[in-house]
Amino acid sequence: MSKAQNLQTGHIGLNVTDLDRSLAFYCEVFDFEVMAEGKEDGRRWAFLGRGSRLLITLWQQSEGAFATDLPGLHHLSFQLDTIEEVRAAEENLRGLDAEFTYRGVVPHGESGTSGGIFFNDPDGIRLEIYAPTGADPADAPTAGAPTCGFF
Could you tell me which residue ranges the VOC domain spans (predicted)? Predict the structure, then answer.
């Protein structure tokens, strides 16, 4: 059997409790377009992306909140080009009363220059927006381990 040479992540599927609320959040925060949507009672879903690229699918088929203590998704991370874009996203999220894990932009590791913001979506799914450079070197929130791994 030959190995696939160009393996890439396709889209990420997320279970949500309230599709309308999650659609509003993800479209506002990430400027996603609704590419397709199912509105049938008991089978609501939405495909979100940019241009012709599908990035996130939302499925209204769960109850409760995201469980960080069970196996499964740890967090979902999005990269921007600059730390200024990350700070603009942070301001937007503050206007939406998003729940943040840390205050402001934090480095990924001790004295690192990559860093970002860590927050939750309306269902408690852990999210990150970061830039590969531009974060002020500082103490990381979790000493001796990657910040994005322990929040």
Answer: 8-132
